[in-house]
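FW: tagging you since you asked about this chain on Friday. Here's the raw sequence from the shared folder, copied in full. Didn't touch anything.
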Amino acid sequence: MPRTVHCVHLDKEADGLDFQLYPGELGKRIFDNISKEAWAEWQKKQTMLINEKKLNMMEPTDRKFLEEQMEAFLFEGKEPTIEGYVPPKKP
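HL: got it, structure written out here
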């Protein structure tokens, strides 16, 4: 049976992640408060950010940048700035 969390990003009860996908304290916060649906949204944005900004995940500064964007998106509802990408309007 899937575990349910109150997703702070979507502000609703939704299926939680099956396991902690991100390390450390932030990973625990994501596991406890972010749904699969919101995580999937972030994954798409993360891919766009990595490609657009040519981020190198071996570089600590690039990883830190991405982590800050992820935290702002998931917990504060801030859309990352991605050149040429317009987020769909919320109804």
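FW: The mean pLDDT is 91.
HL: agreed, and The first helix runs from residue 24 to 33.
FW: great, closing this out.
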